[in-house]
C-alpha cells in the first residue's frame, strides 16, 4: 500500500519548511504509508524541489491513528523512478509490491523546468528510460504517474489560450503538431508504445477518466508489440482546488472544451469537485475509484473504472458538477 501525489504539493512563495511541517502535521502523520511523489510545475520554481530535498524523511503516526507504523516521503529523483525499487531501497522493512503484479513508475512531465543536476536526467534520457522500462517489465499491470495530462483541456489563458505558450506547454506530452504524424517521440508515446496500462496525473483541477476511441494516428501498433489499445488516462487534480469556482464565462468555456474532448473518447467522465482516487490491482483486474469529499468532510464514491470493464458512475451528478 502507498499514497501517490500527482504534484503541485506546494503553491506560492510560502516558507517551504513551514509548508512541509504543516503537511506532516495535517496529513502525513495520519496516513503513515510510503508517499510517492511526481513533481508538478508549481513544485519546480526553485533550484531543487522541496519534495526532492525531503526524500527519505520519515516519521511516526499520531497516537491512535488509523494505521500503525511510520510515514515515509519518497521523491528520489527529478527524473523518472520506480516506486517499488525505491520503496525497497529506502524502507526495507515495508511490505513489498507483490512480485510480478504491478510496475509503478513516476515521471517528471515538466520538460522546461527540469532542474539541472550534475549527471542528472535529461528529458530525452527520461523518455528512453521509461520506454525501455515498460517494454522490459514482466508485471501484469504497468502504471505511470506524472503531473501533466496527455489530453489537454484548454482552460488557462496563460498555458492554453496563447498559441505560442500552448505549443510549448502542451505538445511535449502529446507530440509536436508538425511532425507527430511521422514521429512518435513525445512522453505520451513512450508510455503508450511501452505498453503502459494507465497514466495517472494531475495539473487540471478535476477528477476525470478518459479512454480514447482509438490510438492516436501517429502511432503504429506494428511498431509496438506491447502496445495496449485500452490505455486509460486518469486525472486526479482536485484534492484542494477545483475549476468550479472560476468566473461563469471561464467555467462555460471549460465545459465546452471538455465536451470537445469527449468526441475523441470511447469512455469519458469528469467532475469538478474536491476529491481523490484509489487504485487497486489484482492479477485479474486494475480498478480505480473516484471519491468526492463533501462539505461535511465525508467521502463518497462517485465513479469507478475496472480494467477490463466499463466505467460506472455512482449517481446522476457525474459529468458536470
TrEMBL record:
**Region of interest (Disordered), ranges:** 302-321
Pfam families per record = Metallophos (PF00149)
Q: Name one GO molecular function term.
A: hydrolase activity
Q: What is the name of the protein in this document?
A: Calcineurin-like phosphoesterase domain-containing protein
| InterPro entries the record matches | Calcineurin-like_PHP (IPR004843), Metallo-depent_PP-like (IPR029052), Metallophosphoesterase_PAP (IPR051558)
Does this entry carry the keyword Protein biosynthesis? no
Query: Locate the Calcineurin-like phosphoesterase domain: which residues?
Result: 3-205
Q: Does the keyword Hydrolase apply?
A: yes
Which species is listed as the source?
Alexandrium catenella
**Keyword annotations for this protein?**
Hydrolase, Signal
Amino acid at each position: 500500500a502507498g499514497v501517490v501525489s500527482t504534484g503541485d504539493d506546494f503553491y506560492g512563495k510560502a516558507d517551504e519548511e513551514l509548508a512541509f511541517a504543516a503537511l506532516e502535521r495535517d496529513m502525513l502523520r495520519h496516513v503513515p504509508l510510503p508517499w510517492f511523489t511526481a513533481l508538478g510545475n508549481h513544485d519546480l520554481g526553485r533550484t531543487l524541489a522541496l519534495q526532492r530535498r525531503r526524500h527519505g524523511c520519515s516519521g511516526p503516526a499520531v497516537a491512535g491513528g488509523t494505521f500503525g507504523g511510520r510515514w515515509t516521503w519518497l521523491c528520489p529523483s527529478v527524473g523518472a523512478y520506480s516506486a517499488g525499487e525505491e520503496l525497497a531501497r529506502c524502507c526495507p522493512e515495508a511490505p513489498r509490491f507483490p512480485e510480478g503484479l504491478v510496475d509503478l513508475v513516476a515521471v517528471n512531465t515538466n520538460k522546461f523546468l527540469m532542474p539541472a543536476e550534475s549527471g542528472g536526467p535529461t528529458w530525452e534520457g527520461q523518455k528512453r528510460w521509461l520506454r525501455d522500462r515498460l517494454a522490459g517489465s514482466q508485471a501484469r499491470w504497468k502504471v505511470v504517474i506524472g503531473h501533466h495530462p496527455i489530453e489537454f483541456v484548454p482552460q488557462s489563458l496563460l498555458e492554453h489560450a496563447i498559441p505560442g505558450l500552448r505549443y510549448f506547454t502542451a505538445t511535449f506530452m502529446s507530440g509536436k503538431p508538425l511532425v507527430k504524424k511521422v514521429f512518435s517521440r513525445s512522453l505520451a508515446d513512450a508510455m503508450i508504445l511501452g505498453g503502459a496500462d494507465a497514466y495517472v496525473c494531475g495539473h487540471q483541477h478535476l477528477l476525470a477518466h478518459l479512454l480514447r476511441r482509438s490510438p492516436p494516428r501517429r502511432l503504429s501498433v506494428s511498431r509496438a508489440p506491447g502496445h495496449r489499445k485500452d490505455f486509460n488516462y486518469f486525472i486526479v487534480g482536485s484534492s484542494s482546488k477545483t475549476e468550479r469556482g472560476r468566473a461563469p464565462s471561464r467555467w462555460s468555456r471549460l465545459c465546452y472544451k471538455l465536451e470537445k474532448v469527449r468526441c475523441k473518447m470511447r469512455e469519458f467522465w469528469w467532475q469538478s469537485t474536491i476529491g481523490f482516487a484509489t487504485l487497486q490491482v489484482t492479477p485479474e483486474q486494475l480498478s480505480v475509484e473516484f471519491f468526492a469529499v463533501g462539505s461535511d468532510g465525508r467521502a463518497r464514491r462517485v465513479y469507478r473504472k475496472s480494467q477490463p470493464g466499463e466505467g460506472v458512475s455512482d449517481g446522476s451528478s457525474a459529468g458536470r458538477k
